[in-house]
Every structure is written in C-alpha cells, then in structure tokens.
C-alpha cells in the first residue's frame, strides 16, 4: 500500500496528537507509579497496574476528543480500547517485571518505566487507531 503525501501528512499529524495525549496520560502514569513505589512503598508490579489503568481511562477520553474520529459507538470503542489496553498493560507490566529482576533497573525505576512505555507506544497507536477509525494506516 502506497501512501500519498496528504495521507502521510495526516498520519504524522495524528501521531503527533496521539503522542501529545499520550504524554499527558504517560505523565499521570509515571507520577502515580513513582509516588506509589517511592512514597507508598508499593512493589513495582501492583504500582504499575494501578498507574497504567488510571492513565488508560484518561487517554481514552483525550483520544476520543482530540485524536481519532470515532466510527461507531463510544461504548464499543471504549470496550475495545480497554481490551487493547489490557494487552498493553500486560506487555508493559511484563517488561517492568523482567527489568526489575536486575538491581540496576530496580534502583532506577524511571528508566524501567520509560523503557516499558516506549515499547508499548507503537503497539497502542496502531491498535487504538483501528479501534476508533477501523483502519491501521
């Protein structure tokens, strides 16, 4: 499938909006995660599940409003988005779990969370775009 310039420009603009909404949700995820781990003495995996879940709900609301053009019902999109996010949460938590087995990553939780978040970004963009607009590219 070849992309023309206009389609490519729209895709880049959409990714920028996705990245901005993702940055807000990721900030909430990071801050809540670090607060739970550093100040509430939670272990990384449960802290990751709670912080990621809060960010998922916030991110859905922002993406629905600012990023994607909803095709179909909001309820269906939310349920599919949650399903995509559950898989993203599994990937993210698996990475956090694996990395925190190493003392270095256990000490540097910001780096651990950053790596996990970076990997899941691309997975989330393409699957969430499909959920909202029913197309990948």
Distance between the ends: 9 Å
The Cα radius of gyration reads 16 Å
Please outline the major beta sheet.
none
Number of helices: 5
Along the chain, the helix and strand elements come as HHHHH
Instruction: Write down how many β-strands occur, each being a DSSP E stretch of 2 or more residues.
Output: 0
- Please state roughly what percent of the residues sit in beta strands, choosing from under 5%, 5-15%, 15-25%, 25-35%, 35-45% or over 45%: under 5%
User: What is the molecular shape?
Assistant: elongated
Low-confidence stretches: none
Q: Quick check: average pLDDT?
A: 87
- Classify the helix fraction into a percent range: over 70%
Which structural category fits the helices and strands?
Answer: mainly alpha
Report on this model:
It contains five helices and no strands. By secondary structure, the protein is an all-alpha fold. The chain starts with a helix and ends with a helix.
């Amino acid at each position: 499938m070849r992309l023309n310039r206009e389609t490519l420009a729209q895709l880049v603009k959409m990714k920028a909006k996705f990245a901005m909404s993702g940055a807000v949700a990721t900030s909430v995820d990071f801050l809540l995660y670090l607060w739970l781990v550093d100040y509430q003495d939670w272990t990384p995996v449960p802290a990751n599940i709670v912080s990621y879940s809060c960010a998922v709900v916030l991110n859905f609301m922002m993406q629905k409003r600012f990023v994607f053009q909803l095709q179909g019902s909001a309820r269906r999109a939310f349920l599919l988005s949650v399903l995509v996010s559950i898989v993203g949460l599994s990937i993210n938590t698996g990475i956090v779990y694996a990395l925190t087995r190493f003392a270095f990553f256990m000490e540097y939780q910001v780096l651990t969370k950053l790596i996990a978040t970076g990997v899941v970004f691309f997975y989330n963009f393409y699957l969430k775009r499909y959920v909202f607009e029913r197309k990948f590219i």
